[in-house]
TrEMBL record:
The gene is cmk. ATP binds at residues 13-21. It is found in: Cytoplasm. It catalyses: CMP + ATP = CDP + ADP; dCMP + ATP = dCDP + ADP. Residues 9-218 form the Cytidylate kinase domain. This is Cytidylate kinase. The keyword Ligase does not apply. Pfam families: Cytidylate_kin. One of its GO terms (biological process) is pyrimidine nucleotide metabolic process. Belongs to the cytidylate kinase family. Type 1 subfamily. HAMAP family: Cytidyl_kinase_type1. The keyword Transmembrane does not apply.
Length: 226
């Protein structure tokens, strides 16, 4: 028996490569669901920081991950019913989420939560291992990257626009540290899937990046989208 699954587009890549923004626009355009998988790791980091669990106590973190009451609705992230969408965007949560994401059991526990979001008419999933581990059978896989100084500048602009007081050097250090940790970990490292389209958008704006991905989409799925 052949089971047909909803279509999936995966967009993986390093920190601040623009994958979240692009994934959101594409999911809106197609009317497909959006999975920002980083928000699940961030929600767990948020729960850890707001408990008395140490970031190195992986037994307790795994128990917390198993009981995590997380839901994602319309791009907003809820923990135990509370909207934590804005609260999980801090640099501290970025760092803690990347530390806990290196644990095999944590990843395994969070895998089902991510896969359970797959439904019709389709899913756009962004993260680090969407095309390699979570949805290896996705029809279209993109690996979006950009030069680190450009990614740091983009993250800086994002944070400044939200009224945060930030320093570009520490942002760059934070991105480099996270990239290295994500790429060097044993389980689900940040690497392009063998069948991913690698797209460096260092000199592209959002519209240009989007246009390339939508061309790939049309080539794969046919010409129709909203
Ligand atoms: O994408 P975002 O920056 O929100 O992700 C936060 C952290 O969660 C990343 O630095 C990474 O360590 C982890 N993550 C992951 N696998 C994913 C998504 C995020 O390991 N699929």
């Amino acid at each position: 028996m052949i089971v047909e699954l909803p279509p999936i587009i995966t967009i993986d890549g390093p920190t601040a490569s623009g994958k979240g923004t692009i994934a959101r626009i594409i999911s809106n355009k197609l009317g497909w669901l959006l999975l920002d998988s980083g928000s699940i790791y961030r929600a767990l980091a948020f729960a850890i920081i707001n408990s008395d669990i140490s970031v190195s106590d992986f037994d307790s973190i795994e128990t917390l991950a198993s009981n995590l009451e997380i839901s994602i609705n319309d791009g907003n992230v809820y923990l135990g019913g509370f909207d934590i969408s804005e609260k999980i965007r801090t640099e501290e949560i970025s760092r803690v989420s990347s530390v806990i994401a290196s644990d095999y059991n944590v990843r395994k526990i969070l895998l089902d939560k991510q896969r359970s979001l797959l439904s019709y008419p389709g899913l756009v999933a962004d993260g680090r291992d969407m095309g390699t581990i979570v949805f290896p059978y996705a029809a279209l896989k993109i690996f979006l990257t950009a030069d680190i100084s450009i990614r740091a500048q983009r993250r800086y602009n994002q944070l400044i626009n939200k009224g945060n007081v930030v320093n570009i050097t520490s942002i760059m250090d934070n991105i480099r540290e996270r990239d290295e940790r994500d790429a060097d970990r044993l389980y689900s490292p940040l690497i392009p899937a063998s069948d991913a389209h690698i797209l460096d958008n260092s000199v592209l704006d959002i519209e240009q990046t989007l246009s390339i991905i939508l061309d790939l989409y049309k080539y794969k799925f046919g010409p129709s989208y909203n």
